[in-house]
Amino acid sequence: MAAFERSFPAFVLAASVLVLGAVLVSQYWGGLAPCELCLKERWPWVAAIAIGAVATLSGSRRAVPRVALLLTAVFAIGSALAFYHVGVERHWFAGPAACTAPPGAADTIEALKAQLLHQLPVRCDQPAWSLWGISLAGWNLVASLAMAGIAFAVFWQFRPPRRRAI
User: Fold this and answer.
1) pTM of the entire structure?
2) Residue in 48, 40, 50 with CA at minimum distance from that of residue 16
3) CATH architecture of structural domain 2-92+123-158
4) pLDDT tens for residues 112-137?
């Protein structure tokens, strides 16, 4: 397990680059345009890449529990964002008005023009892609929960021992 302690930041870095890279490939080469919530869900992965890179370059074994706890928080936030997005897709929650509100009837040409200019092209409540009935937001939830669990397990395994009061 000591080898994993040293390689944990590099593992997080590689996993986060893989997840974010897959999302960017699906956007730029696969043609899946992201919605507003999809863009927000990327930020925890970006933060994990930054934390993983700094922790890997520093190589401090003593910092691993703190890094793991920080990454647990980052991936918990990512899980919450992904859960919210899944809830919006399944109509459990109301989503942001900018990407879930149905278009209203415009009564003038100016109102129609304003409506079209302010309308986002991708809706948050309609999944653009799914695999085995699970949308990208759902897969992000699974990945974020798994990474949060792994990070917390590393924190728990390598946390500093509690000192006893005399």
Assistant:
1) 0.75
2) 48
3) Up-down Bundle (1.20)
4) 666 666 665 676 677 776 668 778 78
